[in-house]
Each structure stands twice: as structure tokens, then as C-alpha cells.
Design goal:
Radius of gyration: 31 Å
Structural class: mainly alpha
Number of strands: 12
Strand content: 5-15%
Distance between the termini: 83 Å
């Protein structure tokens, strides 16, 4: 094992798509370990496949990492600029006789795999001079992976096929590129997803045959699963970090929640500051069992973070959702009006994307009436017409404060034998268009007497 006092770790994404939440969790755990130990985090971009790697995706990955607050100490290092190192490593393996050329076509491999699963060693002793380069795996013994999370994991060498380290086009496979780079960059700890554990003995064998005697410390993180215990996939789930950003999740909340996927603080708190997480984080405390990615819990944690924001920060963070493609004419938006109701909204939203629907009644000429809720309300509150008539009369002349409006509405309800929540239901729908939203009476004050009375009258006309 490495004896260096300051560990070196790396996060090595492939730029073939957006940053997956599972990859973001791996990046976070590498970052936490580096910050906890005073180590170094290297960002390495595994872009050896030019057909699938794109610069805009690299930029997207870096943007998502920065949004999460995950900085790196070295890099980004692009594997595409290190191709000569991988070819030199393959030549070294060939010269030592521990690798050989293979010119089997994909069709031939598929045909023979019907009889013998995996590669059957067909080209081992053909002494070819060109083709893909395969590493000759030992026929006996075993390769042992020492894992901080999973303990000792043993692999029978005889069960490992002779695997490709350099493709016919000269590009390296994942195993060779990682073995070379982890050695060259003096990576002391490899922290990555459990799905990469089966490739680990191949990487260890490649390192051994290239002359490296020490292994990094491995820590394979548990898979992220859904409520059905199925692995999170791009086909079935929202898994891109930037999707959650666009939905109005806060970076601090997302980072907090990702840290809880496989790890927990000593007292099992859910809302934990990043400084506390760094102080307590230990790889040995990560659980090996699959971690449930629960969007409801993420939403709960995000709501906690939103409520804890300073008022000015909440307003500034919400503005992009209020000013970019709003449901009202842009010229009708008034920052002062939103500022007046912002504290009420802040207590009730789970994500920032919910803010426009909470306040649209303030900036629309007429409220966007939820007709289904309106029909239900008429059935639930038989004297709806009388309630609206009474509210219109009371609101037209009473003092315009939330306390007075509350008292007037309470008295109206008592006259009709209704509790306050029943009495105010048709009023809220008439004025805001919805059955839920910020506190009603404070909202009425901000909206203004003239607008409120006009909307009550308009709603009254919809009823017999």
C-alpha cells in the first residue's frame, strides 16, 4: 500500500453524457475523502473514445461539478492527450510475452462464444504481428482485491478471460488506461462505483505485469437504486445532475443528500453542513448495501435548505424562475410585489421551480383558475355564492390588513355555520385560482383591495 501521508484520489468521468447522480456521488466521496485527509483530488477525463466523447459534454460535467461546489486540485487531465503512454505500455506487455495480438473478428468471437463463454484464447499462440492486443491472464491462482467497504474480494484467475488492452485502432481500453494513469499519477485510493468491481482484478493484473508492485486502496461504493431496488438508469429515471438544478434544487441540498447515499453522520442527521460532513467522513463507514435514491427525501431536504436561506438569497435564487419564460406577461412582474410575499412562499416550496405557481395570481390579469378544484369546492361548500357575496361586501370597506381580513372571514364563516378553512376556500380559489398557496390574508393585502373585490365579483358570476 502507499505510505504517503497525503492521499491522492481521482474522479475520472467519461464524457459520453451528462453527469449522472451516481457519478456525482462518486465525485463527492472522492472530494470529501481528499478534504478530510488533506489529500489531492485529480480530475481526469476518460475521453479515449473519439466517437462518443464530446467537448460540450466535458464542459457540462465540469459545470455540474462546480455547481455542486466540488473543486479539484489537479486537472482536468484528458486521456486523449496521453495515448502515447498507453501504446508504450502495450508494447512493453508484448515485449515481455505477457500479451499477444488477436485478429478475431466480432463475428468469429460471437460464434465461438456460443460454445465457450468469454474469449477462448484462440490467438494465444498464433504469433500474430498485428491486431488488437490481449493480456495473457494467469491460468492458476487468484487475484485479491482489498476493499475498504467490501473487505477482501477474491477472483479466480482461471475465470478471467484474456482481455483486450489495446484495440485494433490503437486506442486503449478502460483497464489499461486506468492502470497506466493511476500509476503515473500516484493515485493512492480508487473510490468508484460497485459496478466497476469486476474490472478491478484485471487492472491489478495489468499493473503487476507492467512492473508495479503496490496496489491503490480500493473503495467500491454501493449502487444507487430506485424504490423497486432496480439500478438507476437513464432510460427509466431522471439521473442527470443538471436536471435537478433546472428543477430548482439547491446545490447545498443536493450535495448533502448525495453524501447520505451509503454514508451517514454519527447521529443519523439528515440535514448536515458540508463542514460537518468533511469532519466526520470516513470511507470505512460507507455501507456496502445498495443505496435508495429517494426523490421525496431529496425534496424534503431541499425544502429545509430553502427555508434556511437568508431572505435576500431566496429572492435572488428564485428570480431565474420568475424572469425566464414566466406564465405571465414579463412586463407585469414586479420585484417589490414578489419581495413582499417571498417570506410566505419560502416556507412552502420544496424546489425553486414551484415558486412561479405560488405567485402567478399576483402578476396575471386574471387568476389561472383550476376548474377541477372549483367544481369540487362548489360541491363541498354549498353556500359558496353567499360566502362570495358576503366577502365582497366586507372586503370593500374594512381596514385592509391581514388581521382584519382574517377576522372578517372568520365571522362570515360563523354566520354560515362553517369553520375558517371552509369559509375561505371559495375566496382563495376566486382570488388565486388555486386551493393551495401562500397564507391567504397576507396575499390579499399584497394583491390590493380593488383587484381582490373585482376577482370575487367575477367568481360570483360563475355561480347560480
Amino acid at each position: 500500500m502507499y505510505s504517503m501521508t497525503a492521499p491522492r484520489v481521482r474522479f475520472a468521468p467519461s464524457p459520453t453524457g451528462f453527469l449522472h447522480v451516481g457519478s456525482a456521488r462518486a465525485a463527492l466521496f472522492n472530494w470529501l475523502f481528499a478534504r478530510h485527509t488533506g489529500g489531492t483530488l485529480v480530475l481526469r477525463i476518460e475521453d479515449t473514445d473519439p466517437a462518443r466523447s464530446r467537448d460540450d459534454l466535458i464542459e457540462g460535467i465540469e459545470r455540474a461539478l462546480r455547481w455542486l461546489g466540488l473543486d479539484w486540485d489537479e486537472g482536468p487531465v484528458r486521456q486523449s492527450g496521453r495515448m502515447h503512454l498507453y501504446r508504450e505500455a502495450a508494447d512493453k506487455l508484448l515485449a515481455a510475452g505477457v500479451a499477444y495480438y488477436c485478429n478475431c473478428t466480432p463475428e468469429a468471437l460471437r460464434e465461438r462464444a456460443r460454445k465457450t463463454p468469454g474469449y477462448d484464447g484462440f490467438c494465444r499462440d498464433r504469433a500474430l504481428q498485428a491486431g488488437a492486443v490481449r493480456l495473457r491472464t494467469p491460468d492458476e491462482g487468484e487475484t485479491i482485491v482489498q476493499d475498504l467497504i467490501r473487505g477482501e474480494v477474491r477472483f479466480e484467475n482461471g475465470a478471467l478471460e484474456d482481455f483486450v488492452v489495446l484495440r485494433t485502432d490503437g486506442s486503449p481500453t478502460f483497464v489499461l488506461a486506468n492502470a497506466v494513469d493511476d500509476t503515473d499519477m500516484a493515485i493512492s485510493h480508487v473510490i468508484r462505483g460497485e459496478d466497476l468491481l469486476p474490472s478491478t482484478p484485471k487492472g491489478i493484473l495489468a499493473r503487476r505485469l507492467l512492473g508495479e508492485t503496490d496496489d491503490p486502496v480500493f473503495a467500491h461504493l454501493p449502487l444507487l437504486v430506485d424504490e423497486s431496488r432496480q439500478k438507476l438508469s437513464k432510460r427509466r429515471h431522471s439521473v442527470a445532475v443538471e436536471e435537478f438544478r433546472e428543477q430548482g434544487y439547491l446545490a447545498e441540498a443536493m450535495r448533502n443528500y448525495l453524501a447520505l447515499l451509503g454514508w451517514a453522520p454519527s447521529d443519523d442527521r439528515e440535514v448536515v453542513s458540508i463542514d460537518e460532513i468533511i469532519a466526520e467522513f470516513r470511507l470505512e463507514d460507507v455501507k456496502p448495501s445498495p443505496a435508495f435514491f429517494d426523490e421525496k427525501k431529496l425534496g424534503h431536504i431541499n425544502a429545509e435548505y430553502i427555508r434556511a436561506l437568508p431572505g435576500e438569497r431566496f429572492i435572488s435564487d428564485a428570480l431565474p424562475w420568475l424572469e425566464e419564460d414566466p406564465p405571465w406577461p414579463p412586463e407585469r412582474f414586479d420585484l417589490g410585489t414578489f419581495t413582499a410575499v417571498a417570506p410566505l412562499v419560502q416556507e412552502r416550496v420544496r424546489t425553486l421551480s414551484e415558486v412561479p405557481a405560488m405567485v402567478d395570481f399576483l402578476f396575471l390579469e386574471e387568476p389561472d383558475l383550476d376548474k377541477e378544484e372549483w367544481d369540487k369546492m362548489v360541491g363541498r361548500v354549498p353556500p359558496a355564492a353567499a360566502l362570495l357575496d358576503d366577502a365582497t361586501a366586507e372586503y370593500a370597506s374594512c381596514d385592509w390588513s391581514s388581521e382584519v381580513l382574517h377576522g372578517a372571514t372568520l365571522a362570515i364563516g360563523e354566520r354560515h355555520g362553517l369553520k375558517l378553512n371552509k369559509a375561505q376556500a371559495p375566496i382563495r380559489l376566486a382570488v388565486t385560482g388555486r386551493s393551495v398557496g401562500p397564507p391567504l390574508f397576507e396575499s390579499l393585502v399584497v394583491l390590493g383591495r380593488e383587484c381582490v373585490v373585482r376577482r370575487l365579483s367575477a367568481a360570483r358570476q360563475r355561480l347560480p
